[in-house]
Design brief:
6 helices, 105 residues, Rossmann fold, flat
Length: 105
Amino acid sequence: MNLWVWLALHYVKIDRFFVSDIARDPLKFEAVKAMVSFANASGAWLIAEGIETEADLEIVRDLGIVCAQGYLLGRPAARLLDAVGALRSGQIAVYPAVYAHRHHR
């Protein structure tokens, strides 16, 4: 929490420890509820990590967390081929117009 305040973070990822089984664990629910309150006060967006069940997703949604990741929402390897292709590509993505202009004279 100290770093959260000191760094004035815009995005904070909630560790899967707190999110996994939140629908069945009242203590995890209270911990994440407190994080939501703190995030609202600081203006930060929360990202719930480790969503693996619909019940957990519904709790996270009802707490007002709009960013989430986890196996329920998509497997990490689902887009692996796209990622590998992008990493191997020689195309410059940061300033493609500048790159194209310099190399097509």
